[in-house]
Predict the 3D structure of the following.
Amino acid sequence: MELTYSAYLKLDQLLNSQQPLSPDEHDEMLFIVIHQSYELWFKQLLHEKELLNQSLTGGCEFQAMATLRRMLSILKTVVNQVDILETMTPLSFAAFRSRLSTASGFQSWQFRLLEFYLGFRDASRLRSYPESSEEFRSLHKALHEPSLFENFLFFVSEHYNSDIPEDILNRDRTQPYQGDIRVVPLLLNLYKEHPTFRMLCEMLTDFDEGFQEWRYRHVKMVERTIGYKNGTGGSEGVSYLRKSIFLQAFPDLWNIRSDF
Ligand code: HEM
């Protein structure tokens, strides 16, 4: 038999994967579909990151920018999906929330992989997963791999012959990178001199800003939907989420802006 649309896309599996726990609550379907589509886009972002890494390692600046542009479009799309979920009222959500028990987006390991890739390293995130699980293994691996910014710095040192200090290139990757004042003037010079490099820096900054935008839209969605209740994942909810709103993935790229 010839391959069909449904068979190729495994629609049987895909469309049978929405199983509301409260079938009488109309909005639970939306809640599930939105979360599942987020996870699919997270999967795509993680897939794109492989190409981005390869491009930076291989010195293909244009390919890196093309991939970043796609990743940015995906990020904008997921941020916009908040609008759809915000059509669910606190009343509708309250009607099925207790069925979620302790399940929470807090446990999204693909989101944690993205955070690790962006340099938000925090080994304690691994505690959410059993040591024998695939989630634990992939996060543990990601914790020791170079972040996007580290790959960018390798690229800068290789292809622009910039003297990025060795201790930065070989830093302990399990710790978050807080920025380094020695990097700022090096990036600033390249930024002024090379238009393509400038575009790359701006795209990275777009991505950083887009990620902060996601955190902001998410916390406002949470605030309007559950107010100041604790999260199902066990955190204090809004006050926990507010702490990360302005975290920067690429502090040096923000810092160069004070020196123009
Ligand atoms: C009505 C909608 C939503 C509510 C009320 C909500 C609520 C929360 C709360 C309270 C937390 C804090 C952790 C906890 O104690 O549970 C959290 C974390 C999180 N949620 Fe949501 N959420 C919603 C929608 C979403 C959507 C659509 C996604 C998309 C995947 C998502 C992804 C996440 C992630 C990744 C975290 C971890 C954030 C971090 O640790 O910084 N949430 N959510």
